[in-house]
Design goal:
This protein is an all-alpha fold and 152 residues long. Helix content is 42%, strand content 0%. It has a domain of 62 residues. The protein contains three helices and no strands. α1 runs antiparallel to α3.
């Protein structure tokens, strides 16, 4: 981390704290009417309306500095990583799917069995049937009750 990047990070954090503080110091839209009728604001340093202008302008300047420091920190982060020849994310590190030409053929799929040496085409063998319904007997736990029974 360079000295300039460290300085920019410190400025960024201080500006972020200052923006939070200035936003919390500002009054809402409804508080302006009470301040206009002399609720002690005329004796303040900036007058009745001057404090609102000062706070809003300062907040806008701090928000601009925060935005620019965010861009600067982003530039430092991308300049440090260099060219994108290495994977940058989790999805880029996954292996690619095998091509159909890379998958070996099943023995006996193209021709006879290797032991027989005949050129007779292989016969396909159906897959065993898998029951899709529920088991015929209900499951029993070690206590001897059926699944779904309410214990007494």
């Amino acid at each position: 981390m360079s000295m300039l990047e460290t300085l920019l990070l410190v400025v960024h954090l201080l500006v972020a704290i200052a923006v939070c503080g200035f936003v919390l110091l500002q009054h809402g839209k409804g508080a302006d009417m009470g301040a206009a009728f002399g609720s002690g604001a005329s004796g303040s340093l900036f007058g009745a309306v001057g404090s609102a202008n000062f706070l809003s302008r300062t907040t806008a300047v701090l928000a601009t500095v925060f935005f620019l420091s965010s861009l600067g920190l982003t530039w430092f982060a991308t300049a440090r990583t260099g060219p994108r020849s290495t994977p940058q994310g989790v999805m880029e590190t996954l292996p690619s799917a095998p091509k159909p030409s890379d998958v070996p053929a099943a023995p006996g799929a193209a021709g006879g069995s290797p032991a027989s040496g005949s050129a007779e085409p292989a016969k396909s063998v159906p897959a065993p049937a898998v029951p899709s319904g529920p088991a015929s007997a209900p499951a029993v736990n070690p206590a001897g009750t059926k699944a779904g029974d309410v214990p007494k």
